Amino acid sequence: MKKLTLLVSLFILVSCAKDTNKELTIFTSRQPQLLEPIIEKYYQETGVKVILLSGNAQELMERIDIEGEQSKADIFMTVDAGVLWQAAERNIFSETKSKILEENVPSYLRDPNGKWFGLSKRARTLVFSSDQFSKSDFSTYEDLAKPRWKGRLCLRTSKKVYNRSLIASMIDAYGFDNSKKIVTGWVSNLATEVFSNDTNALKAVSSGQCGVTIVNTYYLARLLDDPKYDNLELVWANQNDRGVHVNISGAGIVKTSQNKKEAQKLLEYLSSGSAQDFYASANKEYPVLKDANVAESIMVWGAFIEDEINVSKLGSLQKEAVFLAQEVGYK
Ligand code: FE
């Protein structure tokens, strides 16, 4: 009897250990500190330990490719639909069929073949200096091509995927030639050389070097923590037509993962309920889940109409966008 008790307790010990020993690895280009709190919460709730391996998106994709079957990557998580699309083209992802993900993530924010799913939305819109202008001066991205804005516009480089995706969305909406005219107008309105990042473009607007720029809203949210920049004001672009350009951060399950079921559960978790409030708020982005909460500090910007182009098109039109930018000398 003693032996049996020992055996039973050994069995319990082993099976407990198995549950808490579950591990998943996310290869991600996102900053680890944005993910750590939610991953810790997931561990507390499920006993599944999530390991983050962070790095540059291109290098991580390369690594997954090279490592093949040996790769520890269960999930690849990154920002920008253009990059997710590229990962799918490189055949890194498996196809995931999940009712939960399909319900939580609107269809335009995920890959039509289920290879990747948006987990937060990133709105790219106009920010101007309230020292020089008021909200009613602005309407659309396209309007910034008009001569009225000569010497007033600041832009981040077109080499950043965010701007390539924005241009891709215009190509989808207006065609290549019309978009080319618009971007030509932007370039001729530039107040100064293009910036290497959104934050510097915002600072240039605040200092009066230029009057308006186009940025992802979370960069503005970060700067507004400092009262020095409180002359920066946001306006939602294209509210009377196609809506604000929206991109995503997102993830997919790696083709060679040995833990696909567990990986799917984690993605489902990240797309639902309180995880959505949390995940999007960490970087002051917008949740993909309808009615999830946004960070308090960005509530003042209110709701906005968004461009509901399927974000996978931002990827498939990326090459054309790059070509267009080169053609018009948008560095
Ligand atoms: Fe960013």
Can you characterise this structure?
The chain has 331 residues and is an alpha/beta fold. The protein folds into two domains: 7-121 and 247-295, Periplasmic binding protein-like II (D-Maltodextrin-Binding Protein, domain 2, 3-Layer(aba) Sandwich); 122-245 and 312-328, Periplasmic binding protein-like II (D-Maltodextrin-Binding Protein, domain 2, 3-Layer(aba) Sandwich). Helices cover 43% and strands 16% of the residues. Strands 1, 2, 3, 4, 5, 6, 7, 8 and 9 form a nine-stranded mixed beta sheet that branches. Helix 2 (32-46) links the parallel strand 1 and strand 2 (49-54). Helix 6 (161-174) crosses helix 7 and helix 7 (176-189) crosses helix 13 (318-327). The longest helix is centred in the first third of the chain and has 19 residues, at 2-20. The radius of gyration is 22 Å and the shape is globular. The model is unreliable at 1-19 (pLDDT under 50).
**CATH architect. name of the largest domain:** 3-Layer(aba) Sandwich
Strand content: 15-25%
Cofactors, ions and other ligands in the entry: fe (iii) ion
- CATH hierarchy, class of the largest domain: Alpha Beta
What is the number of strand segments? 9
Distance between the termini: 79 Å
Which stretches are poorly predicted, pLDDT < 50 over at least 5 residues? 1-19
Order of helices and strands: HEHEHEHHEEHHHEHEEHHEHH
Bulk shape: globular
Give the tally of structural domains: 2
The CATH topology of the largest domain, please? Answer: D-Maltodextrin-Binding Protein, domain 2
